[in-house]
Structure formats: structure tokens, C-alpha cells
Write a structure and sequence with these properties.
Blueprint (H helix, E strand, L loop, with lengths): L5 E2 L9 E7 L13 E4 L13 E5 L7
Antiparallel strand pairs: 1-4, 2-3, 2-4
InterPro entries: YjzC
Pfam families: YjzC (PF14168)
Organism: Paenibacillus yonginensis
């Protein structure tokens, strides 16, 4: 079982890093323009996303179109 890669608001950050908003489904039609990017330390709480269908993902793991 691997480490989770997507996080919801209120979850705790598993590691230090830069996290970015991603769409719920990785589809060409759901790409996000100007996603929010945040820097968190291990144990920090993820803030709210721009809308309820988005999640947080570590920046180097996020899909970029």
C-alpha cells in the first residue's frame, strides 16, 4: 500500500513541500487555470480549495497540461 497522493481540505500534510490544486478527475476537459499553490510543513492542515471538486497534490506529482 503506497502513500496517498491527493488530499482534501482539513487533511494533514504528510511531508514538507509545495502543494497545488488539481481537478477531481485527470481529464483534458477539467484542467485548472491558475491553480492555488501553497507551501506546507509536515503536519500542517490543508486549507480550503477554490471549489469542492478540487483536491491538493504535491506540486512535483501534479499533472500539468
Amino acid at each position: 500500500m503506497g502513500e496517498r497522493t491527493e488530499f482534501e481540505p482539513g487533511d494533514k500534510a504528510p511531508n514538507d513541500g509545495i502543494y497545488t490544486e488539481v481537478g477531481e478527475a485527470r481529464s483534458f476537459h477539467t484542467q485548472i487555470q491558475n491553480p492555488k499553490r501553497i507551501t506546507l510543513k509536515k503536519g500542517d492542515t490543508f486549507p480550503d480549495t477554490t471549489n469542492k471538486n478540487r483536491k491538493w497534490k504535491k506540486a512535483e506529482k501534479a499533472l500539468v497540461h
